[in-house]
Amino acid sequence: MFIPGTVFNVISRSVSTSTVCNQIIKLTRLRVVDNSEIGKAAMMEGKPPRCIHVYNKTGVGYIGDRVLVAIKGEKKKGILVGLKQRQNPKVPRFDSNNIVLIDDSGTPLGTRIHVPIPHILRTIMRRNTHSKGADYTKLLAIATKFV
Amino acid sequence: MTMVSRLWCRKARQNLAFAKVLGKEPKTFSTLVQLKTDEATDNNNDSQAQTNDELIKSPSLGNYRLVYPEFLPDPNPLYRNSIREKLERMDMLNRRSVLSIPEFYVGSILAVTYSDPHAVGKINKFVGICILREGCGLRSSFLLRNVVNGEGVEVRYDLYDPAIQNIDCLRLEKRLDDELLYLRDAPLEYSTFPFDMEIEAKISESVPVNDIKIPLNPLPWSQRWERLNLKGVKEIVVNERRQKKAAALAKPWEKYDLMKTYRETIPEEEQNEIFSDVYTKLNELEIQKNILKRKYMLQRQNSSKTRTS
């Protein structure tokens, strides 16, 4: 004798049900929006990556911040390129928290980003890039659309 | 003292400006606009006290609270300050005399062109459906939503932002609700609008209401929509527990709460006072806007004719 509620509970056990957090902190689920192998595989599997560290002093990630994510049992770095949170006037707010995976030198792992990227990210990425450090502006080159 | 002198100067200037318009006497006005100006001239000749009385009676002031909601101050008495409100109104009129801000409502489709220091050509354009209008005075803002490359994007703009170069109302219509935030939890096709949309040629007396009913995605949602008594949404399916909770939290008696209404709205007498203050200037701007609109429509008709022939 099955009660529908019980059936639903049993099914939902196999699904990760932590909701998308409106603030990017540790253990927030994110969405990979580039076409890198590992990112695509993780999103297809229904196990989106989790933020395990935000590289700033506050621990709360905002647009353009660098995060460390746990994706398919690996640690990768990513850049936040679109947030669900309320933004300043004229800065777009997106329906999901998007990241683009990068490696340590700032080169993106994928070759294309399939969602729009906010224009303000150009300025932020240029500001974060230092001549001898990582070059984050490479990410802008693989974007398809800016809003 | 300076305040009083400043206001005096402004009054005088307003009268002068009005006289200028009368001198030109453009002939392309529609009958309705012509009537309005006639009324205004009559009022102007009479004494100040009488002007206010007649303006209150005139039908055109009735819909000003809907067309220009940002001219009404925040009803919360903690935030009221008559001098600041007056100064803000003057600033708003000054801005409106430079940039033509069209009449729009929640549910209308807008195109905003603004200078963006981060964009390539320093100019950016966004098209979307207005899902929220909030704030009053110079702080009033609106929220546009669209779907770009399969991703929902929302941009908030301040209505009196000096960086805005142009605002076009591509489709003027209303929806059944006061805010359309539920579009975030609806299928994407209901908030998708092409970026190359043209202004729809329709000059009608009243604003059409689009009574489309939108289905929501299955749970989870960003808000508990079943509690908000929405009219523009197809029947909301939630489990029994949430239904019970919504029924328990419903406040159907609130619409009879006169005190609450009084606290949350600006009384009619005060509205009339405010709008009779800005009526002349707004009317003048409206006339200019109508002329420009007609010109644009004519140009477009001509160009389409030449294209077909």
UniProtKB/TrEMBL annotation, chain A:
HAMAP family xref list? Ribosomal_uL14
Q: Where in the cell is it found?
A: Mitochondrion
Give the keywords, sorted. Mitochondrion, Ribonucleoprotein, Ribosomal protein, Transit peptide
One Pfam family here: Ribosomal_L14
GO cellular component entries: mitochondrial inner membrane; ribonucleoprotein complex; ribosome
| Family of this protein | Belongs to the universal ribosomal protein uL14 family.
A Gene Ontology molecular function term of the record: structural constituent of ribosome
Instruction: Just give the chief location class.
Output: mitochondrion
Name of protein = Large ribosomal subunit protein uL14m
Please cite one Gene Ontology biological process associated with this protein. translation
TrEMBL record, chain B:
GO biological process: what's one of them? translation
Instruction: Give the keywords, sorted.
Output: Mitochondrion, Ribonucleoprotein, Ribosomal protein, Transit peptide
Q: Which domain of life is it from?
A: Eukaryota
* Main location (coarse class): mitochondrion
- Where does it live in the cell? Mitochondrion
- What GO cellular component term, any one, is given? mitochondrial large ribosomal subunit
**SUPFAM superfamilies from the UniProt entry:** Translation proteins SH3-like domain
| MF terms in GO | structural constituent of ribosome
- Describe the family membership recorded for this protein in Swiss-Prot or TrEMBL: Belongs to the bacterial ribosomal protein bL19 family.
Q: What is this protein called?
A: Large ribosomal subunit protein bL19m
Annotated source species: Frieseomelitta varia
